[in-house]
Each structure stands twice: as structure tokens, then as C-alpha cells.
From TrEMBL:
PANTHER family: TYROSINE SPECIFIC PROTEIN PHOSPHATASE AND DUAL SPECIFICITY PROTEIN PHOSPHATASE. It holds the Pfam family PTPlike_phytase. The lineage of its organism: Eukaryota, Viridiplantae, Streptophyta, Embryophyta, Tracheophyta. This is Paladin. Coiled coil: none annotated.
Length: 462
């Protein structure tokens, strides 16, 4: 993220780490720039003769071993034990260890690598040695599973580490390829940085809640149109920004930061890439894999929007000396509806999240009313852009006079299904009109001597 002191890189060699630090000027005899280097690898890594090697399954050397939920201490303990195992095995083979190397064309080759106690290092040891050599670098490890969203606790750890660093500190993230996890870390760090300097707010525009100008391309706003998908306007995201206060602004901020950090991967547009792959892929196994990536990427985008709203509302979390703040994990727990949305609209029904039922929306002819304004419901709904009255929503009449139960002995106009518990001042009613509310209050007041009424609304829908 240019000019924001946030950087990303793939897993480097030891010389590569030194070159990056020299480039930034993180040396006592250089610019004296301070660096916070955050590795997002959850896989155990060791350096052998200056090059990184990762533990993999012999049958799947290109696939990461997943340790979802592992913390820094445990993964670094694994790396220390892995180093011991390498040295013990090498002692049996003339101080050599058999490794699997990868050529520039992706071909795998097995070769014997000569090792010694000094040539095998854990990542932690590498950075500690660089500190002793005068490099101004602090090293952190936040293990995150590849191709998945960080867990709520991961967000909190990153906020804690980033907020403790001086605002002028250069922040560097790495994973394996320097793509998904690294880009996600860069987005999180940029959101934190912007909030720390008070630059996170995006002015509300006059277009909020209005239908777009008649000259705009209406097909771009239809559900599942190429442009709407590129903008990340999936059903689950529309539902999120409707229910989450500040959700519209949070999505705008995340989109802005994602676009700024997109030199390797655009985290929003990558969702659409897998969506398109699902539709075109004839091979069922590859299609299932694409669907899995689609869901993980969409969930990552969902949590980034939640985090953007959180960090803007919980500024106390950005002050390292403050203990009086709500963590992101607790903030999410206090909003169970955010989990129910993603469970209902993504995890339990991925085809709906994909928009599979309406992949080819037909553009109906716009019927003009007598005043010359379009009133075709699909187009008007597509062009809506309010915080709650958003795209693909309609205002449906919520009074249902036809729901009246004919077996009930009493009828109250405008208040269907009014009834009471015999001998108790407890009543029930369907959603009433305003006149219906008045009628119910008059009915209760007249029969109970004008006592006050306590009305409970059990609706969760707006």
C-alpha cells in the first residue's frame, strides 16, 4: 500500500529479508526506519543454508498442512522440534538431509542438502540474529490458515501488535506466496493505520437513498450483473450492510483499501474469479474446489467489512495503553445476527450465495407511468442505494388483513387476530395499522378501567 508504510512479500530467503530491510532503511547506519515484520504462516518453516523449507505431506507436496487455530507459541515449538529432527536425521546421513526442491518451472526434485548446527534456523532465530547485526526489525507471528479469513482473535492480535508500534513504523507482512494472507494483513494494517491517523471516514454523498440518474447503465445494477458482482454486491453482503450500523460506509472503506492493496490480488474481485470458474468448470472436483474458495473468499470479505465498522467505532482499541475497550471477538459475539446471516446466506446455501438461481436476469422493458418516471419494480429495486433500503429490496405491505383467524370470537378493525388470555390482562395481535393500535388500546382501556398498556413488539425485521 504505497505511502501508507504497509508492505507485503512472499516467503523470503535470509538474504531476501536483509535486502528488504536495506531497501526500507531499517539499519542503524541507514535511515533508521523501524520495521514490524509479521509472518502469517501457520505451517512450520525452517531455514536451511539461508533458504526456507516447509513441512509437507509426501503425497501432496504442493498442499499446506492445516493447523487452524494454532497459536504462535505452539507453531514456534513445532519449528524448534523440526530443527532438532533435521539435525538428528542429518547425523545419520553424513550431515546431510534429503529435501524436496522446486525448480523455476514448478518441477519437483529431491536432493541432499549438507547441514550443520549453524545452517539450520527457525524463523524466530533468523530475525533475532538480524537484530544482533543491527537491523531495526521486530518480528511477530500470527498463524492464519491459507485461503481463509483470519479468525476474530487473529484480528485482535493484529490490532494489538499494530497499535503498539510507533505510527511511523514500516509494517511488512509475509505468507508463502505473498498473495492471500499477506494482502489480507495489508488491508487490516491499512484500516488500522487510517483510523490511527483519523483518516478513515468517507463523507456521505447525496446519492445515498436515491435512485441513480436516468443516464446510468441500469444493467450494471441488476442482481448478478458483471459490474454488481465486481463491486462485491452479493446477497450475504447486502444483508450485512443493511443490518450493521455503518455497514455501507464500512464496505466503502474496505473496498477503497482493498483496491489500494491490490497489486498482487484484489480480495473482492478474487471472489468473482472463483464464481465465474464454478460456472464454466466442467470437472466436478475442480468445481467443488472453486466453490470452496468462493465461500472462503466471500467470508473473508464479510469479516473485513465487519472489522472496518468495529475499528471505526472502537477507537480505544488503537491505544496500546488502553485496556478499556471491546475486542473484535467480543464485539462480534454481541451481534449474533452477523453470524446468523453468514450461516444462513452462505454456509447453509452456497448456491444462493453464488446467485445461481438468477444468473441470467432478463432486462424487462421499462414501462413509463404518466409522469414519465420508470416504475418497473426490478429496475427500481436494483438502483436503490440506501443503507437499509438498499439494492434488491422492496417495501412490501406488512399489514395482512387476510390472516384473520375466523375462529376467534372478537374482531378489532385494523388489528387482525386480536385475542386475550381468559382471566388475565394478556393479549396478542397481528401487525396492526396505526388505527388498529388505537382501537386495541381503546378496547383494552375500556374493559380494564383505563389502566396503562405495555405493548411488546416481537418483530426482528425492520
Amino acid at each position: 500500500a504505497d505511502s501508507l508504510r504497509v508492505h507485503g512479500v512472499a516467503i523470503p530467503t535470509i538474504v531476501g529479508i536483509q535486502n528488504v530491510l536495506k531497501h526500507i532503511g531499517a539499519q542503524k547506519d541507514g535511515k533508521q526506519a523501524r520495521v514490524l515484520w509479521i509472518s502469517l504462516r501457520e505451517e512450520p518453516v525452517v531455514y536451511i543454508n539461508g533458504r526456507p523449507f516447509v513441512l509437507r505431506d509426501v503425497e501432496m507436496p504442493f498442499s499446506n498442512l492445516e493447523y487452524t487455530g494454532i497459536n504462535r507459541d505452539r507453531v514456534e515449538q513445532m519449528e524448534a522440534r523440526l530443527k532438532e529432527d533435521i539435525l538428528m536425521e542429518a547425523a545419520r546421513y553424513g550431515n546431510k538431509i534429503l529435501v524436496t526442491d522446486e525448480l523455476a518451472d514448478g518441477q519437483m526434485v529431491d536432493l541432499w542438502e549438507r547441514v550443520s548446527c549453524d545452517s539450520v534456523k527457525t524463523p524466530l532465530e533468523v530475525y533475532e540474529e538480524l537484530q544482533l547485526k543491527g537491523y531495526l526489525v521486530d518480528y511477530e507471528r500470527v498463524p492464519i490458515t491459507d485461503e481463509k479469513s483470519p479468525k476474530e482473535m487473529d484480528f485482535d492480535i493484529l490490532v494489538n501488535k499494530l497499535s503498539q508500534a510507533d505510527i511511523r513504523t514500516e509494517v511488512i507482512f509475509n505468507c508463502q506466496m505473498g498473495r492471500g494472507r499477506t494482502t489480507t494483513g495489508m488491508v487490516i494494517a491499512t484500516l488500522v493505520y487510517l483510523n490511527r491517523i483519523g483518516a478513515s471516514g468517507i463523507p456521505r454523498t447525496n446519492s445515498i437513498g436515491r435512485v441513480s440518474e436516468s443516464g446510468s447503465n441500469v444493467t450494471d445494477n441488476l442482481p448478478n450483473s458483471k459490474e454488481a458482482i465486481r463491486r462485491g454486491e452479493y446477497t450475504v453482503i447486502r444483508s450485512l450492510i443493511r443490518v450493521l450500523e455503518g455497514g455501507v460506509e464500512g464496505k466503502r472503506q474496505v473496498d477503497k483499501v482493498i483496491d489500494k492493496c491490490a497489486s498482487m490480488q484484489n480480495l473482492r474481485e478474487a471472489i468473482a474469479t472463483y464464481r465465474n470458474s464454478i460456472l464454466r468448470q466442467p470437472d466436478e472436483m475442480k468445481r467443488e474446489a472453486s466453490l470452496s474458495f468462493f465461500m472462503e473468499y466471500l467470508e473473508r470479505y464479510y469479516f473485513l467489512i465487519c472489522f472496518a465498522v468495529y475499528i471505526h467505532s472502537e477507537r480505544a482499541a488503537l491505544h496500546s495503553s488502553s485496556s478499556n475497550h471491546t475486542s473484535f471477538a467480543d464485539w462480534m459475539k454481541a451481534r449474533p445476527e452477523l453470524y446468523s446471516i453468514i450461516r444462513r446466506l452462505l454456509r447453509s446455501d452456497p448456491m444462493r450465495a453464488l446467485g445461481y438461481a438468477s444468473l441470467k436476469p432478463s432486462l424487462k422493458k421499462i414501462v413509463e407511468s404518466t409522469d414519465g418516471h420508470a416504475h418497473e419494480v426490478g429496475l427500481v429495486a436494483a438502483l436503490r442505494s440506501g443503507e437499509v433500503l438498499g439494492s434488491q429490496t422492496v417495501l412490501k405491505s406488512d399489514h395482512c388483513p387476510g390472516c384473520q383467524n375466523v375462529s376467534l370470537p372478537e374482531r378489532v378493525e385494523g388489528a387482525p387476530n386480536f385475542r386475550e388470555v381468559p382471566a388475565f390482562p394478556v393479549y396478542g395481535v397481528a401487525n396492526p395499522t396505526i388505527d388498529g393500535i388505537r382501537s386495541v388500546i381503546r378496547r383494552i382501556g375500556s374493559s380494564k378501567g383505563g389502566r396503562p398498556v405495555f405493548w411488546h413488539n416481537m418483530r426482528e425485521e425492520p
